[in-house]
Amino acid sequence: FFYFVRLCLDKILLQCVLQSRTLSGADAINALRPFYFAVHPDFFGQHPKEREVNENSLKRLNGYLENLQKPGFRSFKPTQLTFYVREREPNSSNVQESFSASGFRAVSFTLHTRDLLSTVLDILNSCSLSTEHVQSLNLNSQPRKEARSAVNRPIKWDKTYYSFTGFKDPEEELEQAHRVETTLLSWLDDNEASAVEKLKKSLPLRKELERLKMELSQELQLSDIRWQRSWGIAHRCSQLHSLGRLVQQRPEILENVKGHTVVFTDRSGMSAAGHIMLGTTDVHHHWTKIFERLPNYYKLQKRLLLLEDRISQLLGGIQVVYIEELQPLLTLEEYFETLNSFCNKLRDSRLPFHPHSLRGLQMILESDRYAPSLHEFGHFMIPTVCNPAALQWFIISKAQEARENLKRKEEMMITEKELINTSTERFSLDRLYKEPSVSSAQMIDCCKRLLEESLPYLQGMHLCVSHFYSVLQDGDLCIPWNWK
């Protein structure tokens, strides 16, 4: 009995010590500033894949941190996160890292701590960031002297304590979490009912969205209507209603949109790909100005095409392309300035490329690189500040490899489409799609392994291949491409 009382008193004392070392929510944000700076999506504007992975992981991290601050919060699930950070020399850390072709390293780690301080330190250490500034914060992050002197020994609770009190053993919970890895079947078992309920609620809105999209596309004779981000169905319907009201109020200004694509995104203008961008935070007045400027945008677009042709002539016939999946969403003005600057640089250097020697190859321009590279799909990724001599040697030496990659890309795209169609039919899915950050190779691998399974849970569902497990607000099921 006395031993049990001693254990209880020790636990109370330890809780007091831990409370003296906890961080407030504001302190946690301040302590994580170096981390947020290293992974913030705004710094990955030139790299859509890395940006989207970081956006999704930050949402899940914020949810984890919010749960830790809830009063009485006890139960939790270990959360695995992946972030892209600037590439550096690999270290000997046991954190799982992989290096991408885009100049960043992917860092994966699992959060399983129950207090903010330990969580903050785990995040910083996992990303090899300094933790010294955490100790210098103006907070009670160090134990009180009285408590430190009383508890200066490591405490390991006897198993009988948990038997008597009914409390859960944190060590046992953690060991069980490490032993039991989330599998696709177990996750579907736990989340199918929630996804079905959300999907049923969203069906009327989905029909409304399709109706609005079809009516506006026909009325304005648009090629397509798209969204840059994964907004919910209700949000998308609201945006289409806004566009519909503008059509009714000012039908004369919409005569120049025939045959074009409208993209709802973060800002208004015309994109480098020639799409009409409507900023979702802008009011009708801003959208009206964009439609009024369309004739001027079309003139600038013709000048841009001439610039691309000129660059192609200077580089032996290689085609300059803008690929939305691999490049940031640039405005037409921004892209024109980039092309113009690069063209002037090439013209001054007078590189001796043989005419048409590189015909059939493709290149994209990037403003945040210093060395050229070759994408796995055969596109040359050329920095605008690249040294002309180095550029010439790189393109010539990699030309054959680029042609092989382009051919492999065509084969891979065909395979991916076939596997998506087969999987959709096999599991009676309503829709199967992937996030832009998932490559074709990853999608192919995912579909091949799905087809080896029996998954009755997926009938009639919307399945999105991503980097993590999640049920979206409209009932879409997100699974990682490398599911177990």
From TrEMBL:
DUF4460 domain: from which residue to which, for each copy? 19-129
InterPro entries associated with the record? DUF4460 (IPR028031), DUF4461 (IPR027989), TCAIM (IPR027986)
User: Where does the DUF4461 domain start and stop, copy by copy?
Assistant: 182-484
| One Pfam family, short name | DUF4461
Can you tell me where the transmembrane regions are?
none
Q: Which domain of life is it from?
A: Eukaryota
- State the GO CC annotations: mitochondrion
Q: Which PANTHER family match?
A: T-CELL ACTIVATION INHIBITOR, MITOCHONDRIAL (PTHR31596:SF1)
Q: In its UniProt entry, what is this protein called?
A: TCAIM protein
